[in-house]
Amino acid sequence: MISLDEMKRRILKAHKYREDLVEPLSEVLDLEEEKVVDLIIEKLDMLRLQGLQARWEKRRKNMRRKILDEKINIDLFLPMLVDFLSIVNEESARRMKEEVIKKVLDEDKEYKKALKEAKKELRKEVVDSR
Question: One Pfam family of this protein, by short name (predicted)?
Fold first, then answer.
């Protein structure tokens, strides 16, 4: 008979959880993936872990969208360019972010490639519009 912890472990080792939950937490917490799985198993009871599936499906894309939005802000230095220096308007910044998010989430484009394209657009906005 399979133990409760082993059942939890199998749930967490499913590809979608490993990719979107275990791997990022491993990096952030600077722990091996197995330690992250152990930590989650310890913190969540079986009921919460089983309920994770339904909540996960509903929130996964929205969560990834929010994370990407913040990452793009940082990587393109948008808060400084939009809010502080006012050399990029909010609409342009929003459009650039949406384009990167669309390419990554809907078209499965690599983030670095989508960001590189956004940087070119940002350069046109800042440098070429003088």
Answer: EhaM
Could you list the residue range(s) of the whole structural domain that residue 5 is in?
1-44
Contact indicator for 26, 37 with CB cutoff of 8 Å: no
| Cα dihedral 48, 50, 55, 61 in deg (nearest 10) | 120
Mean pLDDT for the stretch of residues 87-102? 96
Q: Cβ distance 61 to 54 under 8 Å?
A: no
Contacts of 45 (CB under 8 A, 6+ apart): none
25: left (phi over 0), alpha (psi -120 to 50) or beta: alpha
Q: Tell me, yes or no, whether 38 and 75 share the same domain.
A: no
Reported as a single tens digit per residue, the pLDDT across 27-38 is 999 999 999 989
Number of domains in the chain: 2
Query: Considering the domain boundaries, does residue 49 fall inside one?
Result: no
Say if residue 66 is in the same domain as residue 130: yes
DSSP assigned state of 88: S
